[in-house]
Amino acid sequence: MNVKYFKNSKNLKKLADVLTFSRYVLAVVIPVIVLVQGRQSLGGLAGWVLIIAGVMDWLDGPIARKSGLAGKGFWGKADAPADLFLASTCFVSLYVAGVINPVWLLMILLAIAGCFYSFSVVQPFSVFIFILAYVVFASRENFYFLVPTIISLSLYFIFSHKRIIMLIRRFLIQMINLVKRLFARIKPKDEDDKTVLDT
What we know:
single chain; about 200 residues; mainly alpha; globular
């Protein structure tokens, strides 16, 4: 394909959308692989599919932003939920493999659903924690699965450190604002109690 094709912003956006759609497909494929191949596939084929989905996630964001159309259209809005969907299917895979019981699966899926409450703040960190939990369980089945995982995470931190710092700042600011709002709600109540005591 001609390199000039990707200089067009609409074509770049199409590429980003294809990567987003592919992540949804791969998210469904992971538990299917575990169902067919069994528990050992957590750190095998299913694990590699997860890594590929992660690489697609790291690529589609910069490509969409370079197109100037990030967040536009159906797949632009579906990009961030794809991460939570991937995290959900990873834990479904752990359940299918017999690693976690139905109660844990339900609790985790409810926690993932709760991420939509404060989506832009909680989502990046929660997805990282959920995927990390999968990696821990998968590495118990195949220790060598840690090698490509560590390499891919290292490359992500190297090339996306500015975005990571931005997300951490946003998270801290939101947490500070949340604490301020909580104190703002408590303070008037204390003043009312004091007024009642004075009278």
